[in-house]
């Protein structure tokens, strides 16, 4: 394929895993036909600033600023301001680079002046020359809380400060019931030719998006054109605490657990070669095996091309059928 395809594509996204897939999608889909709906359950306040980790990871990736190896933050960023802040606040456990801090200062200032998170995100994208439409799942405050063996922890505290060590027993989305989808979110799902659920943690990255009233129903309505990409390969997560969370929450660390989570929401779950041999009742979603390791831009492009062909009904990949 030498020219970009023109289907309308909507990606439901968390952070780094979604950003890696996005590197392939943007090489195949026109930017004005691509919408990314991003998790905001990770949003947190640091030093009086509103930080949106997943939104920033997606935007920095689209702007060509994110480091390829790490995936988050700004490539080559310094931390002089953070070093100075440590004199007043003590050791920092959440890394904020100097150029990254500029984003948070701008966002916080705009929010305090009455702008919505959607408006802030649109303005940040414009300033960084990002043409893809990036939408927060909601403009309302929504926090992902984890009930662990050490008490209830906000997600960033669990993942970064505690390094994902406490066993997670349940995940809650505080504020979800009162939240509303951000402008354009439901429309982006309903009018897309292809909807993709990124290979992100289904509990802490995709779960908060689905917890916003109306989003799950909108996704269920278009399940025939929705493809989910498994965040597990051989029972392990490429990055992050998903495998441990699945085990401690009693789900079992294999793609069968992912399939059950997305049942009724996606018609296809794309899994790694050899991962399709699981026993599940019914054919929802259908498991299709394909290389899903997004370790380079070239592999991200190949996976993205295959996902688009799956949604269009053109894929010849091996589908693992279940009794």
Description:
This protein has 323 residues and is an alpha/beta fold. It has a single domain, classed as CofD-like domains (Rossmann fold, 3-Layer(aba) Sandwich). It is 36% helix and 18% strand. The strands form four sheets. The chain has an eight-stranded mixed sheet, with helices on both faces. A three-stranded antiparallel sheet has the order 7-6-8. α1 (16-25) packs across α12 (297-311) and α4 crosses α5 (117-127). The longest helix has 15 residues, at 98-112. The protein is globular and about 55 Å long. It starts with 8 loop residues before the first strand and ends with a strand. The model is unreliable at 316-323 (pLDDT under 50).
Concise account of the structure shown:
The protein is α/β, with parallel strands linked by helices.
What features would you highlight for this structure?
single chain; 323 residues; alpha/beta; 8-stranded mixed sheet; 15 strands; globular
Strand content: 15-25%
Terminal-residue CA separation: 36 Å
Rg computed from alpha carbons, rounded to a whole number of angstroms: 19 Å
Strand count: 15
Please give the largest β-sheet. Answer: 8 strands, mixed
Helix content: 25-40%
What spatial order of strands do you see in the largest sheet? 5-2-1-9-10-13-14-15
* The CATH fourth-level homologous superfamily: CofD-like domains
Q: Which fold name is given in CATH as the topology?
A: Rossmann fold
Mean pLDDT: 92
Order of helices and strands: EHEEEHHHHEEEHEHEHHEEEHHEEHE
Based on CA inertia axes, which overall geometry fits? globular
Helix/strand-derived class? alpha/beta
Domain unit count: 1
Number of helices: 12
CATH C-level label: Alpha Beta
Low-confidence stretches: 316-323
**At CATH's second level, what is the architecture?**
3-Layer(aba) Sandwich
């Amino acid at each position: 394929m030498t020219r970009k395809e023109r289907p309308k594509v909507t990606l439901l996204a968390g952070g780094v895993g979604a950003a890696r897939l996005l590197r392939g999608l943007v090489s195949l889909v026109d930017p004005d036909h691509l919408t990314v709906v991003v998790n905001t359950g990770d949003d947190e306040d640091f030093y009086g600033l509103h930080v949106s980790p997943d939104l920033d990871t997606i935007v920095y990736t689209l702007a060509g600023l994110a480091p390829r190896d790490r995936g988050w933050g700004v490539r080559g960023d310094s931390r002089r301001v953070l070093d100075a802040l440590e004199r007043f606040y003590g050791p920092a456990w959440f890394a904020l680079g100097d150029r990254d801090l500029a984003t948070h200062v701008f966002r916080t200032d705009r929010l305090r002046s009455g702008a919505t998170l959607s408006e802030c995100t649109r303005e940040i994208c414009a300033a960084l020359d990002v043409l893809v439409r990036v939408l927060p799942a909601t403009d309302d405050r929504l926090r992902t809380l984890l009930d662990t063996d050490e008490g209830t922890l906000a997600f960033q505290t669990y993942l970064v400060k505690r390094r994902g060590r406490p066993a997670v027993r349940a995940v809650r989305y505080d504020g979800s019931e009162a939240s509303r989808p951000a402008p354009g979110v439901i429309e982006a799902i309903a009018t897309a030719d292809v909807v993709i659920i990124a290979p992100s943690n289904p509990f802490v990255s995709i779960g908060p998006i689905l917890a916003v009233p109306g989003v799950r129903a909108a996704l269920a309505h278009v399940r025939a054109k929705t493809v989910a990409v498994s965040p597990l390969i051989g029972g392990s997560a490429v990055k992050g605490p998903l495998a441990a969370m699945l085990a401690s929450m009693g789900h079992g660390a294999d793609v069968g657990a992912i399939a059950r989570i997305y049942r009724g929401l996606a018609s296809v779950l794309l899994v790694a070669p050899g991962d399709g041999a699981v026993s599940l009742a019914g054919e929802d979603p259908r498991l299709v095996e394909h290389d899903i390791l997004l370790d380079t831009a070239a592999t991200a492009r190949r996976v993205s091309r295959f996902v688009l062909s799956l949604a269009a009904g053109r894929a010849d990949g091996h589908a693992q059928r279940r009794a």
